Amino acid sequence: IKSTANNCVIEAKQSGSARITISHPKSKYPASVMVYVTKEGVKPVYITTSQNTIQMGYNEGTKQCSVQLVGSSKNDLSAFSFNIKEGYEVVNLISNNNNVSITPKSLGVALIEVTHPECEIPLEIQVIVVNTNTDPYIDSDNNFLVFENFSSRVVTCSVIGRDDRSDNYNFTFENTNENV
């Protein structure tokens, strides 16, 4: 990976997976980008959502999130599974088909893992529960990248909840698997 300011160029080297962790001094919690690289000629099947990072106020109530399966001819909505991967003490989940209701239990961060039998790659949704919705957090234009061949893509980040444009210059990007 190569980064400048709030942009990170991610270049695929070989098939496999990696997590890019994004941090910023104004954000209490990091964000992440999951990267999956498939072998050449293999069409990936993956799960996607429009809400990769969800910030909730502790007293805000329940939020809804939906997911979709991409790249498969089968789309059995009842086969989606939503599980708390990290932060059991932070949220409760109630799922129905490709939808999940998220209710905050305590302040902190939770990772929800979404799976489907047609898909080898789970989706992770980060949920941040804060005192108020004005607490700054990191958002990226994409937190789930699937490379069908060895190419590169740019991820752009911003600090939500801040008006200072200079905040775009203090991002740190770390790769968990330099081989991918």
Question: Quick gist of this model?
Answer:
The protein is built from no helices and 17 strands. With 180 residues, the protein is mainly beta.
Q: How would you characterize the overall build of this protein?
A:
The strands form five sheets. A four-stranded antiparallel sheet has the order 1-2-16-14, with no helix packed on it. The radius of gyration is 17 Å and the shape is flat. It is built from no helices and 17 strands. The protein is mainly beta.
Q: What's the helix count?
A: 0
Q: Give the beta-strand count.
A: 17
**What structural category do the secondary elements indicate?**
mainly beta
Any idea what the radius of gyration is? 17 Å
Mean pLDDT: 86
Stretches where pLDDT falls below 50 for ≥5 residues?
none
The spatial strand order of the largest sheet comes to: 1-2-16-14
List the helices and strands in order. Answer: EEEEEEEEEEEEEEEEE
Provide tags for this entry.
four-stranded mixed sheet, single chain, 180 residues, 17 strands, four-stranded antiparallel sheet, mainly beta
Topology at a glance:
Layout: E1 2-4, E2 7-11, E3 16-23, E4 31-37, E5 46-48, E6 53-57, E7 63-66, E8 68-70, E9 81-86, E10 91-96, E11 99-104, E12 108-116, E13 119-130, E14 137-140, E15 144-147, E16 152-160, E17 172-175
Parallel strand pairs: 4-15, 6-13
Antiparallel strand pairs: 1-2, 2-16, 3-4, 3-17, 5-8, 7-11, 9-12, 10-11, 12-13, 14-16
